[in-house]
Amino acid sequence: MLNLISFQSSALGSLGQLALLGALGFSLAGLLLAVIGGLRADARVTEAARRATWAVFALVSVGISVLLVALLKDDFTVRYVAEHSMRSSPTWIKITSLWGALEGSILLWAWLLAGFAFILSLTLRRDALRPWALGTMFVSLLFFVGVCATIASPFTPVSGLLADGRGPNPALQNHWMMAVHPVLLYLGFVGLSVPFAYAVAALITGRLSDHWVVVTRRWTLVAWTFLTAAIVAGGWWSYETLGWGGYWAWDPVENASFIPWLLTTAFLHSIQIQEKRGLMRSWNVWLIVLAYSSTVLGTFLNRSGIVQSVHAFAGGPVGPVFLGFLAFLLIVGIGLAAWRAPALRDEAEVPAPVSREGAFLAGNWLFLVFAFMVLLGTLFPTFVEAAQGRRDASVGPAFYNAFAIPLGLGLLMLMGVGPLLPWRRADGQGLLRALVPLLASGLGAALIAFVFGVRATGVLLTIALAAYNLVGLGLLTARAARQAGGLGRTLQAQPRRYGAYTAHIGLVVMALGLAFSGAYRQDAQATLNLQAAPRTLLHEQLELTALRQVDRGFGTSAIASVSIDGRPFEARLNTYVQAPGTLFPAPAVRYGALGDTYLVVTSIDPEGRWASIRLIESPLVSWIWWGTLIICIGAGLTLVSPARPVARAAPAGLAPATD
């Protein structure tokens, strides 16, 4: 039996453990009440289940607050603090240590999930879906709170006290983005639990009209926005921390966050078709089941130790449990969808291939194939290891790029022309009218780029499709403005539409950043001697001006001051007391609108005479970060409620119309 509580060992840890056990009890009670309320259609029992979410959220909040206080107070009687924090660490690192290791990260997940369940309990309508949506949320809560309270508890008694703590993972304290990226990622993952809960409720009750889709659109959009920001924030962390000058390496844990994003993006597009045309009902159910299940898959990969990744936690006892929960979600979701398959059939006619519905459907297939191929590449080494008993297989970027580039270009193609096509069916003349200005602008942009020296085929295609999309968005905006009598009116009346257009512009900006930084990145290495003449590298003059070492208490930093074309750069090599033999680079990056200059120190002479450096020039990298910001702004605009038209007063002496 697990030894979970010992007031003698740690009073604070025992308080946290009791809070988690109480939350586990209320999660179980809430699940039972929700099921009974749903089966009996008893509003009073359902209300009791709704209020149980409040107790779960309050108790998990107590648990996570206890852990945070213990981290800030250096209470090493709490096991998690003793193993993953350190007395000499700065305050911000102690705070980020809350999610810097396995047990704390799952506790953060459980707390956010309880928070989403609490918010849902305040917004749920009093309808037949209510008890079953709550019950589905309680199933997730029961799992995550149960894991926190048992096999992955941060509060189990400590076997032996440590005077100063073992300290956090050095890689997670090398850049401030670790205070942002994991929280955004968990908000994205956990946010998908709500639309999943509504989908399950709709399948159980058989109420598969458009209601559940309409209700969950905002929830899904919020989760998708957090997930988008999290993925790019993780890329920025990699860019600023790992010293390789890149931001995406098709790492298994990176892929595990990308798969839910692809599936959720497809879901957001296809629910528009269900709202407008009553089509793709089965698509939407399958997509949200797979999207939420893939978040659990990502958590399993990140915490089971079965994949090799700089982002992964060390293997622990939770891997098999997460695998079991993933299997449970898939079995229940697939089983319910199969049971309700006749009711999920579309009532309207099958959309024509050349129509707006057809473009959305083609886009969904591309997203689905994209997700499947990423999943295949991620799990292939694991399958080989299981079959052969050794871990020597790997899947490199070449495999992923072989399908990611054409699929990405295909999605850009559909993104531009799809909204210009009419619903139901486009005749040949209508298709031609939609395509001619887009193709002409794309061809013109590619020719201009070619004249200015762009020769990479992928980059030329991206430039062409960027112009193609921007012209398409311009035509859509102009058309809507003419119909509404002005751009200002249509922006107020249709913020959802123009938020989507803004997000698409952000994707275009990001695509250009990805294309240029991938194709035209330059990389060179050299050793610079102190007080030596400047050296030319990548057409720039480099001079090593100073070397020094700074003691930071929890580690040291060897700093190389380098002048690049007269501009000062300071690149660091950090070491931490937990890993004195490992060097962690902190590059110096000068961001620019047209490209970044990236300097990283690879080694420094212990006697202070020379430093080996790596210089990287990457065009348009910052467009990735700016594109993401534009995407998030666009997503926020889609959440704005449209302005209601103001009724004009009738002229004096005229009776108002009554018909």
UniProtKB/TrEMBL annotation:
<keyword id="KW-0997">Cell inner membrane</keyword>
<dbReference type="Pfam" id="PF16327">
    <property type="entry name" value="CcmF_C"/>
</dbReference>
<feature type="transmembrane region" description="Helical">
    <location>
        <begin position="400"/>
        <end position="422"/>
    </location>
</feature>
<feature type="transmembrane region" description="Helical">
    <location>
        <begin position="20"/>
        <end position="40"/>
    </location>
</feature>
<feature type="transmembrane region" description="Helical">
    <location>
        <begin position="434"/>
        <end position="453"/>
    </location>
</feature>
<protein>
    <submittedName>
        <fullName>Cytochrome c biogenesis protein CcmF</fullName>
    </submittedName>
</protein>
<dbReference type="InterPro" id="IPR003567">
    <property type="entry name" value="Cyt_c_biogenesis"/>
</dbReference>
<dbReference type="InterPro" id="IPR003568">
    <property type="entry name" value="Cyt_c_biogenesis_CcmF"/>
</dbReference>
<feature type="transmembrane region" description="Helical">
    <location>
        <begin position="132"/>
        <end position="152"/>
    </location>
</feature>
<keyword id="KW-1003">Cell membrane</keyword>
<feature type="transmembrane region" description="Helical">
    <location>
        <begin position="183"/>
        <end position="206"/>
    </location>
</feature>
<feature type="transmembrane region" description="Helical">
    <location>
        <begin position="359"/>
        <end position="380"/>
    </location>
</feature>
<dbReference type="InterPro" id="IPR002541">
    <property type="entry name" value="Cyt_c_assembly"/>
</dbReference>
<feature type="transmembrane region" description="Helical">
    <location>
        <begin position="498"/>
        <end position="520"/>
    </location>
</feature>
<feature type="transmembrane region" description="Helical">
    <location>
        <begin position="623"/>
        <end position="640"/>
    </location>
</feature>
<keyword id="KW-0812">Transmembrane</keyword>
<feature type="transmembrane region" description="Helical">
    <location>
        <begin position="92"/>
        <end position="120"/>
    </location>
</feature>
<feature type="domain" description="Cytochrome c assembly protein">
    <location>
        <begin position="99"/>
        <end position="304"/>
    </location>
</feature>
<keyword id="KW-0201">Cytochrome c-type biogenesis</keyword>
<comment type="similarity">
    <text>Belongs to the CcmF/CycK/Ccl1/NrfE/CcsA family.</text>
</comment>
<feature type="transmembrane region" description="Helical">
    <location>
        <begin position="459"/>
        <end position="478"/>
    </location>
</feature>
<feature type="transmembrane region" description="Helical">
    <location>
        <begin position="255"/>
        <end position="271"/>
    </location>
</feature>
<comment type="function">
    <text>Required for the biogenesis of c-type cytochromes. Possible subunit of a heme lyase.</text>
</comment>
<feature type="transmembrane region" description="Helical">
    <location>
        <begin position="52"/>
        <end position="72"/>
    </location>
</feature>
<dbReference type="Pfam" id="PF01578">
    <property type="entry name" value="Cytochrom_C_asm"/>
</dbReference>
<feature type="transmembrane region" description="Helical">
    <location>
        <begin position="283"/>
        <end position="301"/>
    </location>
</feature>
<feature type="transmembrane region" description="Helical">
    <location>
        <begin position="321"/>
        <end position="339"/>
    </location>
</feature>
<keyword id="KW-0472">Membrane</keyword>
<keyword id="KW-1133">Transmembrane helix</keyword>
<feature type="domain" description="Cytochrome c-type biogenesis protein CcmF C-terminal">
    <location>
        <begin position="323"/>
        <end position="640"/>
    </location>
</feature>
<feature type="transmembrane region" description="Helical">
    <location>
        <begin position="218"/>
        <end position="239"/>
    </location>
</feature>
<dbReference type="InterPro" id="IPR032523">
    <property type="entry name" value="CcmF_C"/>
</dbReference>
